[in-house]
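tokens incoming
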């Protein structure tokens, strides 16, 4: 079933591109670019919520607040690691966007 779905999606591009009056390559690139922009916005939204929650500007600032005792580690380390992951993901998405532009 999964292979059938993947096949249907891959077959959709040649069928849809002429309807939109663009090439298959344009549709693939624009689809990928749109996907990455949506993913980037979601990532940035989560980052914004975390930095606002703790009053920090970045993972480095979060770590500095830990060292200074401004933020207690207990109950916050999950958010610390989530922010670290999100910042790395944001950078990867930005690089991917640069690669297709």
């Amino acid at each position: 079933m999964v292979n059938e779905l993947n096949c249907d999606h891959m077959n959709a591009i040649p069928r849809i591109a002429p309807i939109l009056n663009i090439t298959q390559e344009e549709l693939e690139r624009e689809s990928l670019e749109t996907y990455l922009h949506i993913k980037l916005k979601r990532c940035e939204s989560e980052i914004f919520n975390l930095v606002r929650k703790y009053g920090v500007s970045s993972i480095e600032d979060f770590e500095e607040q830990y060292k200074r005792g401004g933020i207690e580690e207990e109950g916050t380390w999950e958010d610390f690691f989530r922010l670290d992951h999100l910042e790395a993901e944001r950078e990867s998405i930005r690089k991917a966007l640069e690669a297709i532009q």
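note: The mean pLDDT is 91.
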